[in-house]
From TrEMBL, chain A:
<keyword id="KW-0496">Mitochondrion</keyword>
<comment type="similarity">
    <text>Belongs to the enoyl-CoA hydratase/isomerase family.</text>
</comment>
<comment type="subunit">
    <text>Heterotetramer of 2 alpha/HADHA and 2 beta/HADHB subunits; forms the mitochondrial trifunctional enzyme. Also purified as higher order heterooligomers including a 4 alpha/HADHA and 4 beta/HADHB heterooligomer which physiological significance remains unclear. The mitochondrial trifunctional enzyme interacts with MTLN.</text>
</comment>
<dbReference type="InterPro" id="IPR012803">
    <property type="entry name" value="Fa_ox_alpha_mit"/>
</dbReference>
<dbReference type="InterPro" id="IPR006176">
    <property type="entry name" value="3-OHacyl-CoA_DH_NAD-bd"/>
</dbReference>
<dbReference type="InterPro" id="IPR006180">
    <property type="entry name" value="3-OHacyl-CoA_DH_CS"/>
</dbReference>
<keyword id="KW-0276">Fatty acid metabolism</keyword>
<feature type="site" description="Important for long-chain enoyl-CoA hydratase activity">
    <location>
        <position position="154"/>
    </location>
</feature>
<dbReference type="InterPro" id="IPR018376">
    <property type="entry name" value="Enoyl-CoA_hyd/isom_CS"/>
</dbReference>
TrEMBL record, chain B:
<dbReference type="GO" id="GO:0005783">
    <property type="term" value="C:endoplasmic reticulum"/>
</dbReference>
<dbReference type="InterPro" id="IPR020615">
    <property type="entry name" value="Thiolase_acyl_enz_int_AS"/>
</dbReference>
<dbReference type="InterPro" id="IPR020616">
    <property type="entry name" value="Thiolase_N"/>
</dbReference>
<keyword id="KW-0443">Lipid metabolism</keyword>
<dbReference type="GO" id="GO:0016507">
    <property type="term" value="C:mitochondrial fatty acid beta-oxidation multienzyme complex"/>
</dbReference>
<keyword id="KW-0999">Mitochondrion inner membrane</keyword>
<dbReference type="GO" id="GO:0006635">
    <property type="term" value="P:fatty acid beta-oxidation"/>
</dbReference>
<dbReference type="Pfam" id="PF00108">
    <property type="entry name" value="Thiolase_N"/>
</dbReference>
<keyword id="KW-0496">Mitochondrion</keyword>
């Protein structure tokens, strides 16, 4: 089952930490000024090199530095000492952790607050602290290596000068928006001045990571330092040392006026500044940006609008209003359910990036993929660049070369975007072998089959493969609906058989659903998870059953969508209602993306497995469409007509006839726009809860992650389980009962949902 | 010593009176050294049983000139011709007495892509002598020599002329790929209509020329940039680099003034003056060197135009023979070519670190230590690169972490190191430098009375306006020589 999602594909990035504000700043002056390392401090220390204080951060309790309470307190202490030390003329701020400057602040600090006022106060304290840094009489140079995100970036841009390593690990950004928040320690005020209004909006509204060379071009950093290779110390150690040396030179240069902090503006810059100085132009920008945000977020996400509001306040009414607006908006956002949902997803994503099954006995070094179709080639593409030798096998030369071209194109697109060099592309492709036979399979550590979804074919394949692979080799099957135990029935070693359900397009979709049967061994699971993590996937491990988790949740929703079409709801209207609820892709478009034939196949299979509960729309609608060749996007026609090269699409006029044949009369009691939305969503959610009830799901966290990252469940709702918590199980059950009266068991709430409805203290998420 | 005895025995039956006289003089001239060797027990022969002794008979080179100066109007094979003719002149070698000619070059002139053949024909060698051209960035002529050594060892040949040439005053600048494609299609167009439509498809952008790559193909990094990072990785300061550059120029100047650079032949450039000296030697002062801004990594880099080698035109040639043949022809060989090793590393972070990897290996092959070596000649691509290699050789940590050795071999003693200048001062015509290094070692061994010499060089490829740039992979080539 596949679906493409633009929103959720990039919605959350790994490793992001929210900006957090520094706690109140104590102005206690320390009389004892020692340049020596104070051993009572564990997170921040400094030493004086000639007349430069080198302030080093290192959180000994974590792999990354965060602006934790302790880090902040010690930083304030050190900052005061540096200011009071007459031997110091300037300072360098650097992390002694290889590969991380400051990844942000601890989300828990904000979650510990109960009111927006408390959060606003935190924000104001942070603003005050960074204002002191900004106005420091001794210039401070931030030396950045590794992630500099959220509060880390706000800290860095409060410094007078920034030097960054040109390493791939060095990224700057303000990812707060992805957690439904805004940069709350002066970011909304300083960034527009530093990188211009459009650049600042781009950074804060997308939350994307900016690499060092781009940051230099934008004016976010002043100077770049190349990462070093092996020398007399390890590359990481020496690179940090070198960065420090260069930063010290810069600090001295600023003090003795060799480096000017007011950079000379180019012609373009002057023109841009002039244009931005015109109020009308600025108003137009706010308007355009707001319109774009509304179009993309459907108004479901408050954070982008608050960011625009805060920037506007600062630019139009002066810094005092700006900083106040920032702090107040930050407080408000921290209390929203959207922020709560997004932070929940962030935590869930971190949890799903770990292997809870331990380290596999032997790492997968050779992977073979059967079937070079869209899926097979996609899996090859995300594997081949991870140092795993990958064999891509198909049965025909045409199929194979199409698949190889897909892998090449995926890598070549990265070359065009300059994320990799053409040499890296070629080097990566050297790990891919395309072939038509089973030669070399005796070396395979894992085989992933992505052949046609037909049990007989899968059985034939498993027998063929097991004849040639070594005993330790794992057989993974990429299927969206066939129960793994049925496939494993043909295996002579079912403990090595596992399901790996990828989502299309594989290189864009973050989710991997791993399905284990009763017989699957723990080591097999550990190995499959390890491979998935290497491929960069967010992983949920679920139990076996028809449709597993994701497909099973989607099927009733699609059945409902077909019924709505039969009831005369226009596909465009159906799409608008679903996207209006927060789904990145409308239900009709989703059906086209998945493939009408696949949808028909799944609907029929799951219908058989689960009985009338999975009814709703008539499967014959889909079957008739398939007969007429309307298989969705891949065939050019489905609910819509797709013209190559054209982005806009029109409703397929011929489906009128099909739908007319199966026309149903809508019941006005349950057909309002809102009812249409809840009919779709409640079936999805009810099925998800039932999966948890039946033990298919390991827990609500994986349920939410699977729904959001695999199926595009609205991120602002945080997933079906958080949605039940937030919306109220009783309210949902109430709606479902109303629909049940009209449509019967399609809407019967499951027992677990009923339990939650009865007892409001029961919640899926604490 | 065994080999010497064997040689004397074998050579006893006099075939040629002239040879007999020469051989006698040879024995006399080296006898002092031979006695000295007997006394120092550590200094053994490197001859291996069953392996032919291969000797360097002579080596010459044209003066190395800054590109764009007196050689500017020549073609690469003209320079190679001059070197070959110089070799013929110096050795009185009959023009048909050579079995094979091999040349190394980096930036190829398309018209003379087998520059070895064009140059040997032009130099008047017999047209019956086969010749081929090899390329391996800055160690191309080392490859030419070792290819010759291989041919002799294999029993294919006895007499080899090897050399190298580089001509940076003119490099192939191409039409853009799109333009080339159109022009090639134009060739195949049959009708006027087809031709006109192809001509009509040409756009202004197609006319942008394509310069030879300024960057390493695999990493897109220029060599100077890599050298600066390498220097930084090893903590080589700007001061150290400038000092080394000054040393190179000062020593080169002294050697030039003292007439030690006897491998340089004078060359009458058609339409211009006779050139007899390298023109890139410019001893300066530390103050002047300190004034220069970094050339690659700005503003905090340490590699400058003055502590890098410069773009150079030049050619070199050597005569390599089996010892037997050399003696039979009455030559007095200058050195044995005993051993060599090529190594490769990561082209990104260790591009210029070949000498550090190659030196311990070649020493191990010969069963020698650093102290045994009397003469070191290392190719000086950048002062920072040389200093980084010396530091790597002198680091136990580096030896253990990256070379799989228990201990370091140590850095060469500076009083044995590049005493007649190096690529920084003499110039670095990419393809020609290898033969210069080997000939210089032989000459220094003779002059200083040493026994073992070692050559090491790093390589990569490409060029940049104003300075030496890099090549395809980092390879080191090291060589031991010995005179007995």
């Amino acid at each position: 089952m596949s679906l493409s999602s633009t929103l959720n594909g990039s919605y959350l990035t790994p490793r992001l930490r929210i900006n957090k504000v520094l706690p109140y700043f104590t102005s206690h002056t320390e009389t004892h000024v020692s340049p020596k390392i104070d051993s009572s401090r564990t997170h921040v220390n400094y030493e004086v090199k000639e007349d430069v204080a080198v302030i080093r951060m290192n959180d000994p309790t974590s792999k990354v530095n965060t602006l934790s309470v302790q880090m902040q307190n010690e930083m304030i202490e050190v900052f005061n000492e540096v200011l009071a030390n007459d031997a110091v003329q300037s300072a360098v701020l650097i992390s002694s952790k290889p590969g991380c400057f400051i990844a942000g602040a601890d989300i828990n600090m904000i979650q510990a607050c109960n009111t927006s006022e408390e959060v606003t106060k935190l924000s104001q304290e942070g603003q005050k602290m960074f204002a002191r840094i900004e106005n420091s009489p001794k210039p401070i140079v931030a030396a950045i290596n590794g992630p500099c995100l959220g509060g880390g970036l706000e800290f860095a841009i409060a410094c007078q000068y920034r030097v960054a390593t040109k390493s791939k690990k060095t990224v700057l950004g303000t990812p707060e928006v992805m957690l439904g928040l805004l940069p709350g320690a002066g970011g909304t005020q300083r960034l527009p001045k530093m990188v211009g209004i459009p650049g600042a909006f781009d950074m804060m509204l997308t939350g994307r990571n900016i690499r060092a060379d781009k940051a230099k071009k934008m004016g976010l950093v002043h100077q770049l330092v190349d990462p070093l290779g092996p020398g007399l110390k390890s590359p990481e150690e020496r690179t940090i040392e070198y960065l420090e040396e260069v930063a010290i030179q810069c600090a001295k240069g600023i003090v003795n006026k060799k480096i000017s902090l007011t950079k000379e503006k180019g012609m373009m810059q002057k023109v841009q500044d002039y244009v931005m100085g015109i109020e009308f132009v600025r108003q137009q920008i706010y308007k355009t940006v707001t319109a774009k945000v509304m179009k993309m977020s459907k108004g479901l996400y408050p954070a982008p609008l608050k960011i625009i509001e805060s920037v506007k306040a600062g630019l139009e009414q002066g810094p005092d209003s700006g900083y106040l607006a920032e702090a107040q908006n930050f407080g408000k956002l921290a209390m929203t359910s959207e922020s709560n949902a997004l932070i929940g997803l962030y935590h869930g994503q971190v949890a799903c990036k770990k292997n809870r099954f331990g380290v596999p006995e032997r790492p997968v070094k050779n992977l073979a993929i059967l079937g070079a179709g869209l899926m097979g080639a996609g899996i090859a593409q995300v594997t081949v660049d991870k140092g795993i030798h990958t064999v891509l096998k198909d049965t025909t030369v045409e199929g194979l070369s199409r698949g190889q071209q897909q892998v090449y194109k995926g890598l070549n697109d990265k070359t065009k975007k300059k994320t990799i060099t053409s040499f890296e592309r070629d080097f990566t492709l050297a790990s891919l072998t395309g072939q038509l036979d089973y030669s070399g399979f005796e070396k395979a550590d894992m085989v992933i089959e992505a052949v046609f979804e037909d049990l007989n074919i899968k059985h034939r394949v498993i027998k063929e493969v097991e004849a040639v692979i070594p005993p330790h080799c794992i057989f993974a099957t990429n299927t969206s609906a066939l129960p793994i135990k049925d496939i494993a029935a043909a295996s002579i070693r079912p403990e090595k058989v596992i399901g790996m359900h990828y989502f299309s397009p594989v290189d864009k979709m973050q989710l991997l659903e791993i399905i284990t049967t009763d017989k699957t061994s723990k080591d097999t699971t550990a190995s499959a998870v390890a491979v998935g993590l290497k491929q960069g996937k967010v992983i949920i491990v679920v139990g076996d059953g028809p449709g597993f988790y994701t497909t099973r949740c989607l099927a009733p929703m699609l059945a409902e969508a077909v019924r709505l079409l039969q009831e005369g709801v226009d596909p465009k209207k159906l799409d608008a209602l679903t996207t209006g609820f927060g789904f990145p892709v409308g239900a009709a478009t989703l059906a086209d993306e998945v493939g009408i034939d696949v949808a028909a196949h799944v609907a029929e299979d799951l219908g058989k497995a689960f009985g009338s509960r999975f009814g709703g729309g008539n499967v014959e609608v889909l079957k008739t469409m398939v007969e007429k060749g309307f298989k969705g996007r891949k065939s050019g026609k489905g609910c819509y007509v797709y013209t190559p090269g054209l982005k806009s699409k029109d409703v397929n006029p011929d489906i009128e006839d099909v739908l007319g044949k199966y026309k149903l009369t809508p019941n006005p009691l349950v057909s309002s726009d809102s009812d249409v939305q809840y009919r779709l969503v409640s079936r999805f959610v009810n099925e998800a809860v039932m999966c948890l009830q039946e033990g298919i799901l390991n827990g609500p966290v994986e349920g939410d992650i699977g729904a959001v990252f695999g199926l595009g469940f609205p991120p602002c709702l945080g997933g079906p389980f958080r949605f039940v918590d937030t919306f109220g199980a009783n309210k949902l059950v109430e709606k479902m009962k109303r629909y049940e009266e009209v449509y019967g068991n399609h809407f019967t709430p499951c027992q677990l949902l009923l339990d939650h409805a009865k007892d409001s203290s029961k919640r899926f998420h604490k | 010593m065994a080999s010497m005895l064997m040689n004397s025995l074998r050579c006893c039956p006099p075939v040629n009176p002239a040879w007999a006289v020469q051989y006698a003089t040879r024995s006399l001239s080296t006898s002092v050294q031979l006695h000295a060797q007997v006394q120092t027990k550590s200094k053994k022969t490197l001859a291996k049983p069953g392996v032919k002794n291969i000797v360097l008979v002579e080596g010459v080179r044209t003066p190395f000139l800054l590109s764009g100066t007196t050689y500017a109007d020549l073609m690469p094979h003209d320079l190679a011709r001059a070197a070959l003719q110089g070799l013929l002149h110096k050795t009185s070698l009959p023009k048909d007495a050579v079995d094979y000619i091999i040349y190394g070059t980096v930036i190829q002139e398309v018209k003379t892509s087998n520059v070895a053949r064009e140059a040997s024909l032009g130099a008047g060698f017999s047209d019956k002598i086969p010749s081929h051209t090899v390329t391996m960035a800055c160690i191309s002529s080392n490859v030419a020599m070792t290819t010759g050594v291989g041919l002799i060892t294999a029993g294919q040949c006895d007499t080899i002329v090897a050399g190298g040439v580089e001509f940076m005053s003119d490099v192939p600048i191409r039409h853009s790929r799109k333009m080339r494609k159109t022009m090639l299609a134009l060739n195949r167009a049959k009708t006027l209509g087809q031709r006109l439509s192809l001509i009509g498809s040409i756009r202004m952008a197609h006319l942008t020329p394509e310069l030879p790559a300024v960057a390493e193909f695999s990493t897109a990094e220029t060599m100077g940039h890599s050298a600066d990072r390498l220097a930084a990785a090893f903590g080589v300061t700007r001061l150290e680099q400038d000092e080394f550059a000054l040393r190179s120029h000062t020593l080169a100047k002294q050697a030039q003034d003292a007439g030690l650079l006897s491998d340089v032949i004078s060359f009458k450039v058609p339409g211009r003056d006779t050139v007899a000296k390298d023109n890139g030697i410019r001893p300066s002062s530390m103050e002047q060197l300190a004034k220069l801004k970094p050339a690659f990594i700005k503003p905090h880099g340490t590699v400058t135009a003055a502590n890098s080698s410069f773009l150079t035109d030049g050619a070199s040639a050597v005569l390599i023979m089996s010892e037997e043949k050399a003696l039979a022809m009455g030559y007095k060989p200058k050195a044995y070519l005993r051993d060599f090793v090529f190594v490769s590393q990561d082209p990104k972070d260790q591009l210029l670190l070949g000498p550090a990897y190659g030196t311990p290996k070649v020493l191990a092959r010969a069963g020698l230590t650093m102290d045994d070596i009397d003469v070191f000649e290392f190719h000086e691509a950048f002062a920072g690169q040389i200093m980084a290699n010396l530091k790597a050789l002198d680091s136990d940590w580096f030896a253990q972490t990256y070379m799989g050795r228990k201990v370091k071999v140590g850095a060469p003693a500076m009083e044995k190191f590049n005493l007649w200048g190096g690529s920084l001062s003499l110039g670095h015509p990419f393809g020609a430098t290898g033969c210069r290094l080997v000939t210089t070692v032989a000459h220094r061994l003779l002059k200083e009375g040493g026994q073992y010499g070692l050559v090491a060089a790093c390589a990569a490829g490409g060029q940049d306006s104003g300075r030496t740039e890099m090549m395809q992979e980092k390879t080191v080539y090291a060589y031991t020589h010995r005179v007995e």
